[in-house]
C-alpha cells in the first residue's frame, strides 16, 4: 500500500471569532458571500495545485517506464536481427557436454527401470565407454 504524500481536507469557509463588540462579523450579506466565494476559490486553487503535482509525478513515472520499454525493444530488435542472420544448419549447437545418446536417454539412468541383461540398440554407445548396460 503506498504511503500518503498529501493530505487534502476541506477547510471551513466562514468560521471566525467575532471581532467587534456588537457581534457583527461582516457588515452585510454581500461581504459574507464575497469572503465565502474567495475562500472557495482559494481551496479550488490548492486542489488544482495538488492535482497538478500528482499528474506531474505520474508523467515522470510514465516517461521512465517508456524509456525502459524503449531500451528493451531495442535489445529485442537487435536479438531478432542477429537470430535472423544465423543459418541453423551452419551454426554449432552446444549441448552442455552431453552426448547425443544421453539426450535421447540411452545409457543414462532414467525413471524407468532397466533389465540387467537387456541392451538397447540405437547405434550409440554409452558415454562411459561400456558397451552393455
UniProtKB/TrEMBL annotation:
Residues 109-133 are annotated as: Disordered. It comes from the Eukaryota. GO terms for biological process: cell differentiation; lens development in camera-type eye. PANTHER family: ACTIN REMODELING REGULATOR NHS, NANCE-HORAN SYNDROME PROTEIN. This is Nance-Horan syndrome protein.
Amino acid at each position: 500500500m503506498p504511503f500518503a504524500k498529501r493530505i487534502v481536507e476541506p477547510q471551513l469557509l466562514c468560521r471566525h471569532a467575532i471581532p467587534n463588540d456588537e457581534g457583527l462579523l461582516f457588515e452585510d450579506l454581500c461581504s459574507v458571500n464575497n469572503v465565502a466565494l474567495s475562500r472557495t476559490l482559494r481551496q479550488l486553487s490548492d486542489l488544482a495545485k495538488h492535482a497538478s503535482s500528482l499528474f506531474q509525478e505520474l508523467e515522470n513515472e510514465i516517461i521512465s517506464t517508456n524509456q525502459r520499454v524503449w531500451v528493451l525493444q531495442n535489445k529485442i530488435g537487435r536479438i531478432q536481427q542477429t537470430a535472423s542472420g544465423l543459418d541453423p544448419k551452419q551454426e554449432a549447437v552446444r549441448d552442455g557436454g552431453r552426448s547425443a545418446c544421453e539426450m535421447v536417454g540411452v545409457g543414462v539412468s532414467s525413471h524407468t527401470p532397466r533389465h540387467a541383461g537387456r541392451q538397447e540398440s540405437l547405434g550409440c554407445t554409452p558415454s562411459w565407454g561400456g558397451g552393455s548396460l
